[in-house]
Amino acid sequence: MFNDLAALDKRHLIHPVVPWRAHEKRGVTILKSGKGAYVTDADGNTLIDGFSGLWCVNAGYGQQTIVDAVKRQLEEMAYATNYFHYGNENAVRLAARLAELAPGDLNRVFFTLGGSDAIDSAIRMIRYYYNVTGRPAKKHMIALQRGFHGSSSLGSGLTALKNFHDDFDSPAPWQHHIASPYPYRNPVGQDPQAIIAASVQALKDKVAEIGADNVAAIFAEPVQGSGGVLVPPDGWFKAMREAARELDILFVADEVITGFGRTGPMFGSEYDGVVPDMMTIAKGLTSAYQPMGALMMSDALYAAIADSSPEARAIGHGFTYSGHPASAAAGLEAIRLYTEGGLLENGQKIAPRFAGGLQSLYDHPLVGDVRVRGLLAAVELVTDKECKTKPDAGLNISHHLARLSYEKRVIFRAFSDDIAGFAPPLCCSEDDIDIIVSRFREVLDELL
Ligand code: PLP
Fold first, then answer.
1. End-to-end distance of the chain based on CA atoms, in angstroms?
2. pLDDT at position 1, please?
3. For atom 12 of ligand 1, which residue has the closest CA?
4. Is the residue at 328 inside a domain?
5. Is there a single domain that holds both residue 116 and residue 229?
6. Nearest residue by C-alpha to atom 6 in ligand 1
7. Does one domain contain both 184 and 211?
8. What 3-state class would DSSP assign to 21?
9. Is the terminal CB of the chain with fewer CB neighbours within 10 Å at N or C?
10. What GO molecular-function term can you cite, just one (predicted)?
């Protein structure tokens, strides 16, 4: 039966972000079930998931109360729109709960289906805001090199990964990138204050180059995820936020990965005490039990948009599934598990074990850098620690990492540039964390 599946997959399913022909040859591992931090594939092999699916199953697999909440809603009513003058209780309650939890006055919530359309919504709303408030020249948007902001038509240009641009006619001329803080490989060195100062200066220089009157916003992740888990120095996010305020541009925190306890607090912005103008969330919002994302905005921004819009004109932005009641049910229950259910606290409790475990890998000849914040981490591999030499491209390390990840039964993400990314579920025990680390050490040993 699963041979049939493999053939059908090859024949029909277009997978996200893979080289299509190479992927057909390689095939897929069909995942069948999950419990806690463990998943089992169609051949009956059980792996520990050190990456929470795609950094999204923050609560872990098999959380029965989330399943029950979704089921209850589906039985009662499969869908209730938020269009026209209708609404549904779960969406209202989830918006209110998010407003309660989010930093500062981020009290207004627009629901999406995931992170890409949350970013897309931010871009559209920012344009709309400047147009209706009489500053239509403010169109240019800035993001960080190695940043990731999804793959919608607009957002993929803010994403700064080459394969999201090449042959896609992206980025657009109004999309710009400044250097990533990337402490391990920053040209200014590893001194935190120098890195922060360089980032702030890069933002100021870019705004001066484009003209302050033409710049709308900067988008940044509190920790850059898909760019290789680049943990910035403490205070970096706050300095960038303050610089944006001084430059009179909006600051959008992309918390699609960093939200919901991933880096310790509920939101990554809290780590540095940042209140952004807008925040995008997804993934951990429902712990991936249903698809959902959101764009949150400050009361001030909401009021400016609402009060400046022509009274009789509907603001033309919305999706059929904005605030889907079953997704909102999953969100409410996932958040209950993070808070009253103690998952956030457990994540914080196991974080030192996780950091310590990964840092113990520094004695391995291939480990150049270990970077961790909360339960988000990366290990960067080098062949010469002193010179930080990357392994020869011909060795195709990321391919071997991906293969060994399966062989050693530990899921992590093998980034293309010899970086292994980790984001274990918040429900892990310290023993689970030790298993992830020890199996990863076995992976490294195989590479020698
Ligand atoms: N923003 C960030 C920071 C992300 O990491 C991602 C996805 O990984 C996205 C946006 C896009 O989210 P989605 O894949 O749900 O569209």
1. 37
2. 57
3. 115
4. yes
5. yes
6. 150
7. yes
8. helix
9. N
10. transaminase activity
**C-alpha distances out from residue 210 to 141, 174, 206, 245, 277, Å:** 10, 9, 6, 17, 21
Do 159 and 273 reside in the same domain of the chain?
yes
356 with 421, same domain? Answer: yes
- What's the number of domains the chain is made of? 2
Q: pLDDT digits over 299-317, tens only?
A: 999 999 999 999 999 999 9
Same domain, residue pair 225 and 114: yes
Q: What is the largest CA-CA distance in the chain?
A: 67
Is any ligand 1 atom within 6 A of the Cβ of residue 114? yes
pLDDT confidence of residue 230: 98
Q: Which domain holds residue 83?
A: 67-338
Which ligand 1 atom is nearest residue 54's CA? Answer: 8
Residue 399 lies in a domain: yes
Q: Which atom of ligand 1 is nearest to the CA of 254?
A: 3
| CATH for 428 | 3.90.1150.10
pTM beyond 0.95: the answer is yes
CATH number of the domain bearing residue 323 = 3.40.640.10
Same domain as 272, residue 373: no
Say if residues 111 and 329 touch (Cβ distance below 8 Å): no
Mutation test of ligand 1: which of 221, 283, 296, 319 has the most ligand atoms closer than 8 Å to its C-beta? 283
Distance between Cα 225 and ligand 1 center (Å)? 9
**Structural domain includes residue 97:** yes
Q: Domain check: are 390 and 285 in the same one?
A: no
Mutating to test ligand 1, I would choose from 148, 269, 281, 289 the residue with most ligand atoms within 8 A of its C-beta, which is: 148
If asked whether residues 121 and 188 sit together in one domain, one would say yes
User: What confidence score (pLDDT) does residue 2 get?
Assistant: 58
Expressed in angstroms and rounded, the spacing between residue 149 Cα and the centre of ligand 1 is: 6
User: What pLDDT digit, counting tens, does each position of 130-182 carry?
Assistant: 999 999 999 999 999 999 999 999 999 999 999 999 999 999 999 999 999 99
Residue with tokens 């074990």: 353
Does 45 reside within a domain?
A: yes
Please report which helix (H) or strand (E) contains residue 329, including its range: helix 325-338
- The string over 203-218, giving b where at least 16 C-beta atoms fall within 10 Å of a residue's C-beta and e elsewhere, is beebbeebeeeebbbb
Task: Kindly state if the Cβ of 227 falls inside 6 Å of ligand 1.
Answer: no
Range list of β-strands (E), 171-256:
175-178, 215-220, 250-254
Residue of 164, 191, 184, 183 lying closest to 175 (CA atoms): 164
Residue of 17, 111, 158, 257 to test ligand 1 pocket, by largest number of atoms within 8 Å of CB: 257
Question: Is ipTM strictly over 0.90?
Answer: yes
